[in-house]
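[audit] Reproducing an earlier prediction to check determinism. Same input, same settings, fresh worker. If the C-alpha cells differ from the archived copy the diff job will pick it up downstream; this log only records the rerun itself.
[audit] input (180 residues):
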Amino acid sequence: MTPQVTARRVGRAALVLTAALCLACGKEAPMSPLVSVAPADSELLCDVPFAVVPGLERVSSGSWRTPGIVDNPDDFCRLWNEVVPPYGSSCDPKAVDFDREVVLVAGGTCYGTTGFAVEVACVQTGSGPGLLEVFHELHAPGDHCVTGQMMTCPVAIVKVPRPAHSATFELLRTVRHDCN
C-alpha cells in the first residue's frame, strides 16, 4: 500500500469518526463531499408520495449526471433518450402529467463495473414550500458477484406531485448483494 492510499484511507476514517462523534454529542457534523450522514430511518418523515416512471425502472445514464428535477416534457424526453438504449422503447411524454407532477433524478455517480442500481427510498418535505429531500439507496454487487467491466452510472427516476422547485439528494444506505 502506497503512502497516498494509506493517508486517504486514514483521512476518510477520521472524517467518518469525527462525523459520528459530532452526531453523538448533538453537534452538527462536518460537511464533506466524501461523507454525507443521512438520518436514521426512524427519523425520516417520507410524507411525499412518489412512483417510478413506467419504462424507467432500473436504468443507467451514459455519463455522470447531476441529480435534479425535470419539470417539462422536452427535458423529460432528453432524459429518457439518455437512459434508455436506442433499441428500447421511445419516450412517452404522457408517462408524467407535467401539469401536476415533476420528475426527480437521483444517483448519477459512475462505477467501473456493472451490477449497480439506485432506488429512491423516501421523499419528504424540505424546509420550505416546494423544497424536497430525497433519500436513495445504492445497490452494489458483493465480493463474489460476476460483473462486466464497463462504466455504469445508475439513476433512479421517480415522479412526485407539484409543487417541487428544488430538491436535495442524500445517500441513505448502500446495500451490498451477496452472490454466493
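[audit] rerun output stored. Observation attached for the diff report: Residues 55 and 89 are 8 Å apart (CA to CA).
[audit] end
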